[in-house]
Amino acid sequence: MERNNTADRLQEAGILIMTSGISGISALLYGGTRFDIVKIVIMALAASGCMIFALEESRAKNSLLFDNNENIWRFTILYLLFLMGSVVFPMLPEGGWPYLVVFTGLMLFSNQLVGMCAGSTLLMITVLLDKTASPELFLLYFIGGITGILVFASLDESFKVGFPILISLLVQMVCICIHDVLLVNESLNAEMLLVPAINTLVCLILLLIILKFFSVSIIYRIRDAYMDINDPECPLLVELKAFSKEEYYHAVHTAYLCDRIAKRLAVDDAAAKAGGYYHKIGILKGQNSWENTRLVLEEYHFPKMVHTILKEYLDNEERIVSKETVILLISDTVISSVSYLFSKDANARLDYEKLIQAVFRKKLESGLLDCSKISISELEEMKKILMEETLYYDFLR
Q: Collapsing DSSP states into helix, strand and coil, what is residue 77?
């Protein structure tokens, strides 16, 4: 998919200009000297430049999370909103800055590296504007922000946010209390916990707001996309059926096994099922290569996880890493093996257990699974599931 380079450059230039300009004006309004103004402008420009570099590198490698590569405007808008907040935060008590939300929100609409760079840039501006802030305060908020990035980085379509919210809020509150108790050298009392408690409550509310926007703009869209592409009557699958009924039904049977196994192993069943349906879709453009498959996936805006699965499966230069790709590999091989044997003799009585054992043994010996995340216990569970489907294999006669 082509990127709008002009729009990209304008957004990046706007981020640089706004970051340095707003920080310089704010330093002036806070009564900073000429040296203070020049210092914060130069440092803000350098830090935001590093962030832009990280953003560009991530986009070039297509490593932004979800569909953020095609919707960078969401990150830009959120960054500018947080930039305005960063110059207001010095007016709050030092324990009341909601930087957990800043780091986490920016990461969700970019990736871990960009979120860390962007959050650090804004935190630096706030610390420089607050003349009483210490370097330790920067480090404590940075730790809280990085914790938010780490615990929310694995957020996926299942949208399980309870544990990440609990851990991130707990760590930030501990960091703020450390600042108030150990660094300020005051004895612990109930009044000292008031600001951290309020900050935690505010962060919780803001996190819920951002997560709601995240779910509406990304998660629900991905779920809707999977509902469409995993429908056997999806226009793309109908086109495959018209092109080759044999490949269509092979895809349907493979997708069935992928779905069954993925649900039992508690991995991304929607993505695994889509991998089963579309692992032969490249034939619509000629040879079933990764390049042809990629063109189809981009044309129909498939979720990023499907790109990952099919790239690992079809690109000979890629290693199979994800569990979903392993599921696709085994399911496709089993369906292909059974179909081939029935094509030789439709009335053959196959020893499915022996066949499945042979499939697993050959794949393990081939080294294809050496870099995968799949465990031995999960492979054994896959065998068990496939052996339970003996009645289903009769549909392949």
A: helix
Domain that includes residue 187, residue range: 5-222
Domain check: are 140 and 275 in the same one? Answer: no
Strand stretches in 84-137, DSSP E = none
Q: Do residues 101 and 170 share a domain?
A: yes
One domain, residues 57 and 124: yes
The confidence score (pLDDT) of residue 377 equals 95
Give the DSSP H or E segment for 123.
helix 112-129
**Helix, strand or coil, per DSSP, at residue 70:** coil
Do residues 179 and 289 share a domain? Answer: no
Q: Are residues 371 and 309 in the same domain?
A: yes
| Coil/strand/helix, residue 163 | helix
* Pair 149, 206 in one domain: yes
**Structure pTM?**
0.78
Tell me how far apart the alpha carbons of residues 338 and 69 are, in angstroms, rounded to a whole number.
41
Query: How many residues would you count in the chain?
Result: 397
Residue ending a domain, choose from 222, 252, 271: 222
Q: What is the mean pLDDT of each run of 10 residues along the chain (397 residues)?
A: 67 93 96 95 96 93 85 93 97 93 96 96 96 89 96 85 94 85 62 83 95 90 91 93 95 96 94 96 94 94 92 94 96 95 88 94 94 94 94 84
Residue 244 shares a structural domain with residue 383: yes
Give the DSSP letter string of 263-326. HHHTS-HHHHHHHHHHTTGGGGGSS--HHHHHHHHHHTT--HHHHHHHHHHH-TTSPP-SHHHH
Output b/e per residue, 342-379; b: 16+ Cβ within 10 A: beeeeeeebebeebbeebbeebeeeebbeebebeeebb
Q: What is the domain count for the chain?
A: 2
- Sign for the CA dihedral angle at 28, 202, 115, 176 comes to positive
Same domain, residue pair 165 and 237: no
Nearest to 277 by CA among 256, 303, 246, 304: 256
Q: Which of 252, 322, 269, 317 is nearest to 289 (CA)?
A: 317
Degrees to nearest 5, angle at CA 74 with 68 and 79: 115
Give, in order, the Cα–Cα distances in Å from 322 to each of 99, 262, 394: 33, 12, 30
Give the Å distances, CA to CA, from 396 to 219, 271, 345. Answer: 36, 24, 12
Contact 130, 138 (CB under 8 A): no
**First CA to last CA distance, the chain:** 41
> Distance (Å, rounded) from C-alpha 86 to C-alpha 6?
28
